[in-house]
Amino acid sequence: MSIGLQLALAIGSVAVLLALMAIVRHFANRHDIGAELQRKLVHIGTGIYAITLPWLFPDRWPVYFLVGVTIAVMLVLRMPNSKLGKTLHSVERRSYGDLLLAVSVGACLFLAQDQLFLYVLPIAVLTLADATAALVGRSYGTRFFTVEEGEKSIEGSTVFFAVTLVISTICLMLMTPFPPVNIIVISVMVAAFGTLVEAVSWRGFDNLFLPIALLIFLSMHAASPLPDLLWLAALFAGSIIAFRGIAPKFGLTNHAARVYVTVIFVLLAVTEIQNAVFSILVLAAHTWSRISTPSHDKFPDLDVVASIALISLGWLTLGNATEANAISFYGITAMGMATALCALALSAQSIAMRVAGLGVVVGVACVLRAVIVAMNPDAQNWNGPMWPAVLGCLALTALIPSLAPAIFGNGRMTKVTLLALAIPLAAYIFAIDITGLWT
Question: N or C: which end of the chain has fewer CB within 10 A?
Answer without folding.
Answer: C
